[in-house]
Amino acid sequence: MTDRAILRLLLTTDTHLTPRYPHRELPAELWDRIDAADVVVHAGDWMAPALLDAFEQRSRLLVACWGNNDGDDLRARLPETAVADVGGVRLAVTHETGAADGRERRCDARFGPDGDTPVDVLVFGHSHIPWDSTTPGGVRLLNPGSPTERRRQPACTYMTAEVRGGVLRDVARHDLPAAARRT
């Protein structure tokens, strides 16, 4: 992918940009992080093909999937689950993992060492609730929340991380300031 010793990742999901919400836009802080990242991960619910176009133009590497609210145009361009090797870390991104109760067990069954798609890290979305846990099988589960629609959360969010020496490190959740969000 690249010979850089450190890869900077930007993780986001559930951007929900659509003509239905003409006031909603991605915060400038998120665009700045996208521009600076070596790898951008988006876990679906784009809702606007033009947003995918913008991410593709501004990302050095985009690892992305479609979400339940994405139409046929986005589903034709994106997989339901994307898998990539990112600096020695096997990463998958999918939109839905089901209810929080039992999530680690379900994700281990599919993405753990004995699953159909073994990975080190699974990035997912759908709930708009930030999540960071590790399954008993060792899969790191990350949901960056939503940068545009906080729902019942105290803030809109996204995540950053680094890959160094084939290991995911320095995962951080970022709360967007109230002025940056319009939900």
Automatic annotation (TrEMBL):
The UniProt record lists the EC number as: 3.1.4.-
Keyword check for Amino-acid biosynthesis: no
- Enzyme class label: hydrolase
Q: Which SUPFAM superfamilies match?
A: Metallo-dependent phosphatases (SSF56300)
* Family annotation (Pfam families): Metallophos_2 (PF12850)
Keywords per UniProt: Metal-binding
Q: Which Gene3D superfamilies match?
A: 3.60.21.10
Q: Which InterPro entries did the record assign? A: Calcineurin-like_PHP_lpxH, Metallo-depent_PP-like, Phosphodiesterase_MJ0936/Vps29
Q: Which residues form a coiled coil?
A: none
Q: Which residues form the Calcineurin-like phosphoesterase domain?
A: 8-164
Which cofactors go with this protein?
a divalent metal cation
The keyword Metal-binding belongs to this UniProt entry's keyword annotation? yes
Entry's family note: Belongs to the metallophosphoesterase superfamily. YfcE family.
* Protein name from the UniProt record: Phosphoesterase
Q: Which organism is it from?
A: Actinomycetospora chlora
